[in-house]
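ARCHIVE CARD
Drawer: 12
Card no.: 0347
Subject: one protein chain, sequence and derived structure
Cross-reference: see card 0346
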Amino acid sequence: MTSQPATARPASRPRPAGARPSVRTWIVGARPKTLPVTAAPIAVGTGVAASLGPVSLWRSVLTVLFALGFVLGTNFFNDYSDGVRGVDEGRVGPTRLVASGQAAPRWVFRSGVVLYGIGGVSGVVLGATVSWWLLALAVVCALGGWYYTGGRRPYGYRGLGDLGIFLFHGVIAVCATVFIQCGEIPATAVTASLPVGLLSVALLTTNNLRDLPTDAASGKITVAVRLGDRRTRVYYTATVAAAFASAAALLPVRSWAWLVVGALPFAVLPVARVVRGARGRDLIPVLEHTCLLLLVFGALLTAGVSL
């Protein structure tokens, strides 16, 4: 469960080895500008649940805490794992805490542990009050987040990161949100999760396209590294197009799903820049606008499935 930041910032002065990160540094490390990747699937899942019956506020709050704990925790673990491996050295994108020396690796790791603790406690409460199957989900999220870039054989380094993002930020996030509210997973939830997962993959692809040269040099084999520059651009465009196309599958059961067409204007700029060959720092605005696209698409899809 991992996400990427959308705006580059100049590197801060390195802090002494072992130093505790400042509050501002901690916030930057949490990568708050990528929260649409967390917000969109929860919103869509809540919309599906609302179309089936009343929505519980306390279950919604626990769902948000559960998701934020594991998503933000994974961001810190990703920073830690890539930093100690040296993968982030010389990267063009936003500064990472460990690689830049703004925070000691042990503090970044501990931040991930604390956040996973919040997600885990929320999972236990949901397991005790909704279904004990949610404890298994908490374990899956924890393992999926850590092994994205952690451990001896991280799957994010083996071309499986896109699949992980699609499942965790699409299918699992939407369906779990519906299950927490309704105790079941209707076919509508699965269908609604597909475009959200695809746009989450598109967001990751912009990051991987930007980092393609440094990832290839460091041995981090992403889908972008496997495909190469030209085919990754086609892949990004196809992923965005597939998100809109897959939403059409909802029309027979949720006629207002056509509202997602309103997000098309937000896809024009990022797709155009990718197709025209934007590279390096020029891809940072593409990250920003893909985040915005996901947020707007998620809001419109939420309205479409709940009406």
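Annotation on reverse: The chain has one domain: 23-306. The chain has 13 helices and no strands.
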